[in-house]
Every structure is written in structure tokens, then in C-alpha cells.
């Protein structure tokens, strides 16, 4: 917003997000995100934001089969920009691979290229939320690298410091920074703990380790192996409706009926049960709910360390296999 204001376009203030996206639990983050369950308790306090359908191949909101896919869901961005008025839209924000809310939903090729074109056409900044996918997680430095698309800003954290110290950052195109500086301004982004030297030193050490030990390449190779092993569990567990992901970010959606994709009843708490079952056996899972519409739907998300080996992937899958079997036996038959 400051960038737009400083160049004389102060009307650009609306941010467009996607239903099913998640960008944090501040009021602005909840407003821009589309996690219905987390938004609901604070809906009266959320600032204005617009949303378009997610790119969710397994549960396409447009009812299209994928593959093939014509990426027409991306065209909703241009439609909403037209409705709101391009002169009022500041930015579009999206996770390249939707993590917590949709369980590692990966877009088809061409989707983000279409998004980039729509943003450029209307002078709208494209913000990539790579908090979960950045710094090698998906087998590339950043997830958008898979589709050769460059955003205007990248929000990042998590992998930047490997969990050893709290650290987040925003990467910005030089021309955006230059435009603000050219007008003698500076970004109003100072906070109490900004530039913390310990966190920054930790981040630098982690990134050096990632590069020196070729962990991004390991994420790509071992991530492919993880995906294959998780896919193999579908033959053993009818409750697995879909296996998806990219690199070392994998998701397993759990359904009551694989043929119809019908989700389990919310009160059964299947994702929570499965997460508890794996934890009891030594595997940390990230259970998610509301996968279908913000209320119904269960999935498990996996984001193991970039140092993981194939042997450890085998251990992960074995624990998940045993856990799903135990959960399946405990569910009501009706």
C-alpha cells in the first residue's frame, strides 16, 4: 500500500486472496486468507478483502477434471479486479502450494503464469506466501521457481532459520524498493525485534548449511520418493482419497468414500485421531480440517526435515500405515 501511495495511487488498498488460503492469524492475515473456520470467530473485526476460488485440483470449485485443466479458476482474479476496480486493488496474495488449509494442494502448470499476467495487466502486486514452501521445501529454492514465475514480494519464514530461532522476512523486487527510495522515502516496517542479530546469524548459518549440503536437491529426490510411498498406501487404506504435494511437502486427504470424495462427519475428528495415533508411534503429523469447505474435510500434512533419508521416509510411511489401520478400525461402521 505504501508503494502505491508513494507513487500517487493511494486508492489502491484492497488485497485479493483465495478461499482456502492461510496467511497467519493477525486480523489482516485472516482477512486476506480464506480459512473459513479460523476467520469465523473474528469476522466482525476483519478488514475488507476480496477472494477468488482456490486452485484445488482434487476438489475443483468449477467442477473441472484435472488433468486436463485449463486454469480457468485463475481468470476469477481478473473478474474480481474488474468488480472492485483496478484503481482500488493493491495486491493479490497466494500460497504457491496451499499447506495448512488444503493439505499441500499443487496447482497445474500455467496457473501462476495466468495469475502473473492478470496482475501485470492491472498494476496489481503479486505477493507469494512462501512461509511454508520457501528455502528448498518443494525441491526448488522457492516453490514458484517450478513454474518460472517471479512474484513482486515473497513473504518467508520457517525454513529461513530451520526452526532454531524465530525469523521472518519479506523479499521485494528491486524496482519496488527503488521506487520508494527514489522519492526520498523509506518503508515503514520497523518493529521491536526487527533485524535481531541472533536470529539473522542463525538464518545465515542455516542457509549456508542448506547450500553446502545440497539439501534442496535432496528435497526434490527424497520428496519424490516420499510421494511415491504415500501413494502406495492408497492400496492399503480406502480412507485415503488423495495424495498430493511437491518435494518434501506432502498431503494425504482422508475421505469416507473414495469414489464420491465424500468427507467424514466433522464430529468424528478423523484428522485429529490420525494425528494422535501417529504421535503415539513416534511420528509428528500436522492434522488439518475444513479441507472441503472450511468445515468438513480431513487431511494430514507432512513437512519432514530437508535432511531426511529414504530410510527415514520408510519409517515415516510405516508408522502412518499402522496408524491409519488403527484409526480405521476405531471408526463407526455406519
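^ Assign residues to that structure.
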Amino acid at each position: 500500500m505504501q508503494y502505491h501511495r508513494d507513487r500517487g495511487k493511494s486508492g489502491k488498498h484492497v488485497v485479493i486472496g483465495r478461499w482456502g488460503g492461510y496467511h497467519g492469524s493477525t486480523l489482516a492475515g485472516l482477512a486476506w486468507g480464506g480459512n473459513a473456520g479460523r476467520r469465523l470467530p473474528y469476522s466482525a473485526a476483519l478488514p475488507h478483502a476480496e477472494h477468488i476460488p482456490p486452485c484445488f485440483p482434487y476438489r475443483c470449485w468449477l467442477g473441472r477434471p484435472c488433468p486436463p485443466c485449463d486454469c480457468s479458476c485463475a481468470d476469477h482474479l481478473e473478474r474480481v479486479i474488474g468488480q472492485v476496480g483496478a484503481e482500488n486493488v493493491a495486491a493479490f496474495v497466494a500460497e504457491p502450494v496451499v499447506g495448512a488449509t488444503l493439505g499441500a494442494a499443487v496447482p497445474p502448470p500455467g496457473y501462476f503464469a495466468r495469475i502473473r499476467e492478470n496482475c501485470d495487466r492491472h498494476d496489481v502486486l503479486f505477493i507469494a506466501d512462501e512461509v511454508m514452501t520457501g528455502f528448498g521445501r518443494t525441491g526448488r529454492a522457492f516453490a514458484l521457481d517450478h513454474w518460472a514465475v517471479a512474484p513482486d514480494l515473497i513473504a518467508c519464514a520457517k525454513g529461513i532459520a530451520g526452526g532454531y530461532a524465530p525469523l521472518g522476512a519479506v523479499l521485494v523486487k528491486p524496482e519496488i524498493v527503488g521506487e520508494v527510495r527514489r522519492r526520498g522515502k523509506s518503508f515503514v516496517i520497523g518493529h521491536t525485534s526487527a533485524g535481531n542479530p541472533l536470529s539473522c546469524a542463525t538464518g545465515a548459518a542455516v542457509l549456508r548449511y542448506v547450500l553446502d549440503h545440497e539439501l534442496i536437491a535432496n528435497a526434490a529426490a527424497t520428496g519424490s520418493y516420499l510421494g511415491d510411498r504415500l501413494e502406495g498406501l492408497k492400496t492399503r487404506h480406502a480412507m485415503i482419497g488423495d495424495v498430493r504435494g511437491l518435494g518434501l511437502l506432502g498431503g494425504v486427504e482422508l475421505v469416507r468414500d473414495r469414489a464420491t470424495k465424500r468427507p467424514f462427519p466433522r464430529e468424528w475428528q478423523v484428522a485429529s485421531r490420525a494425528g494422535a495415533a501417529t504421535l503415539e508411534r513416534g511420528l509428528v503429523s500436522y492434522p488439518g480440517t475444513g479441507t472441503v469447505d472450511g468445515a468438513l474435510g480431513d487431511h494430514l500434512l507432512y513437512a519432514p526435515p530437508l535432511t531426511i533419508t529414504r530410510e527415514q521416509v520408510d519409517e515415516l510411511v510405516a508408522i502412518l500405515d499402522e496408524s491409519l489401520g488403527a484409526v480405521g478400525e476405531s471408526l463407526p461402521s455406519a
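The mean pLDDT is 95.
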